[in-house]
Records
---
Amino acid sequence: MFASTRRVILIPLPTHRLASSALQALQVDAELSPLVRRTFFLVSLGDDKAASSNGLSDGPVSNGSASTEAVNGDFSTAEKTVLRTEYKATTNRMLRVSVNGFFESMGVVLGVMQELDVDVLAEEQSQAES
């Protein structure tokens, strides 16, 4: 039923703590439509699940859910800085609506991180000084 339309979105973040915070903030909101399934993972940049050149992929989507800490035992938790979001939907329209909502929510999460998180501000300052 959910194999017709799939999408994988990869969002790299500067640290594991920020990636974990984004995951926790986003996963509390359930999908509004029963026609859409969404799962979140934290992966490492070197992880084969994160292998996508542009952050969007129609690649294989695993069935079932996985622990955010147990995606790949080869990488330490501190190296998992990529938020991987997998969508499965029955129609392209349902997928588009869900992904649009996801990006709106992600924009809010990133805005809050930028305004309130000390690590993000320190990262911006170090890049500005370089």
---
Amino acid sequence: QQIWAVSPDGCPNGTSQPMSCSQARGGVFDPARSGSWKAFGNYTMDLDVNLGYDDSASLGLDTVALGFTDVIGGPTIHSQVVSAFAPYDFYLGVFGLGHQGTNISNFTDVHPSFLTAMRNENLIPSLSWAYTAGAPYQSKGFFGSLTFGGYDGSRLIQNNVSMSLASDATRDLVVGLNSIVSTSTNHSNTQQRSLLPSPILTFIDSTLPYIYLPYEACERFESTLGLSWNEDEQMYWVNDTLHESLISSNLTFTFSIGDTTAKGPTVEVVLPYASFDLEVKYPFENKSTRYFPLQQAVNESQYTLGRTFLQEAFV
């Protein structure tokens, strides 16, 4: 619901190439240089707590504007809840899209979200929104898109699936993931493998790139793709040999999504291997290293479709 921005402490002067760090992290926000900042103190970020994250941030109120400048841009909203954080767990800032307000000092001290504030000021017709992360690996590139108060009809593939929100405001965009099927084509030989043992309910979350699945599903990914889990670093690293093998297989992954795990209408989202062909760089690794953005969920509360999925999905 609120806005999380990287603070200058996230790119300290001792950091190698601090300017590059700032650019890589999407820019930094320094509350000390803001004339409208009203500080509340340090609080937990409350981001992806179920995934084991427990970072803190400097919380306050400030004026938030969309666009490059006040003259060339979108709306300006005052008294928005902003968290300035430094840890690398969330390398980029996060723009909350929830309509629920944020309580800070007590349950009656509710500060409206950016979305709700825009609706209250009649800047948008509804509390709806639409988003896709974009797919730069496509031949001509495919930009991300965020629409307030509606959706971009040109990006929508018509279907008969109606989704309902879950009651938990922190994990409301929950869908039924009914199946994941990999398809590989080598010359005239086509092979398909089912990678999800049984349907699950999963949360769609853009804050992290990873897809969290049950351990049994991860085992199927491992055997199908030749992945190996690095227990120490909790990652699936991809070396050059495996990378070339996966590219030559012309892999696609079809995610079948419904409102629940029960039988009913579904929509298929097809991700090419390029969606999963990601790299991690400094400060996480000293050199650029490929990885496959799959994580082993500890329990069902961790089932998540992250930013990787949203490269090909329009929500």
---
Amino acid sequence: MHIPRSRELAPKIDPVTVDHHASSQHTVLAICNKARDAACATPIQVFDFANQSIERLAFSKTLPHEVRTAMGSLIEKSHTVVIGGGVVGSCIAYFITSHPRYDRESHTVTVLEASSIGGGASGKAGGIIAAWADPSCLAPLSYRLHCELSETHGGMQEWGFRNVYCADVDAMGEAVGHAATDENLTHFHSHAALSPSDNPHPPELDWITPNSITSYTELGRPENTAQVHPHLFTNKIADLAREQGANYVMGSAISIDYTPDGSQAESVSYKAKGTSAFIKIDASDVVVAAGPWTKTLLPEAPIIESRNHSIVVRPQKPVSAYVLFPELHPKIPQKRIPPEIYSRPDGTIYSCAPSDRDVPLPETTDLVDVNLEICDRIYHDVSSISQTFREGEIVSRQACYRPFIVGRARDIGPLVGPTGIKSLWLASGHDSWGISNGPGTGKVISEMMIDGKASSADVSSLDPRLMLQKGA
């Protein structure tokens, strides 16, 4: 996206009469010069005269109405197409339309979603928000933006934003888990390197069976850790983006279309939801934020999927605000990832595990297969250390796919930025931290596209070109 970097012009400019059917660059130059003279500023750089072509651009709000009106017929309006209506895609749409130089009159933002907003991991994740999350170059920015969004838009009421404690725990119970390994595709919790607490069972953690916790290692405190209800958050951000001018279109992206030499993305073809119609959208920029479906559009991206199951239980009484990553004992000799446990402000308890690749990625989020046996295993495991959980009502059994980067290490991923193909951007591979890092991703992508570089955080280590070239 190219938006001219012009300083604010003088508020009053004599009207300029032009032939709106004319295509003379000299006429447009005269308009620019008129504006320049009125403001005593340097010429406004909006046309590429050297190449005798008109650039795609969106006018800044600072341009005077007379200039924008006179030049309107000669300007090709910009159109950004974001593929994916999950938390990352919706945050990108929100922060583009929030940018000071975004102008909805001359810049269109379209979010293309195959099934429903937040229908995948963006609606079925745990929803932890952490300043200490991975990667360290993006997580602190994202955490700050989450706090600001909540303060500005009433996050406590709208999407259940609240600060929480988070800990790694060892717990003794009748159910069993297996030690976490990288092969099992689990989180990296380097923050648990601290010594276990002398008091392994905080008194307010009263919904875990007394004396079942043998080790308690704090990962996060309310000042650097929070949670949201992911489905509510994703849909609210989408609503805010719509209010600011973004359009949401329901349809499955089939392909990204390129110029004949393959050097630039120029459109997206999709199948409209519920129909057999295939439609092409012209685009000045395309952002792929399709999570695990990224590989269907960019096979060269080193992103694959992992299925995660979860259940939601409504206990008979309120529970304190904790997120727990437990290791259950005794262990059994099979691949099992210990469940994660999240108390939520809506009065429910969410638990997820394990991770598998038993079923291929379906075409859309609404076709994800749920293995009820795995959901029952989660319930059995968590019930072994929580009578409160065991006596609650199971209100949801669900599954989703999350995207992770092949060969992932803590300093690799997600992939955020330009791809090396003009007008094509990538924002995917967030693994377990998509909800947490959605706002930061949206912010830096908007800065890259509009300002030419990310200024809120140094995310150069997340440059997709590093991994795309490596895999080429």
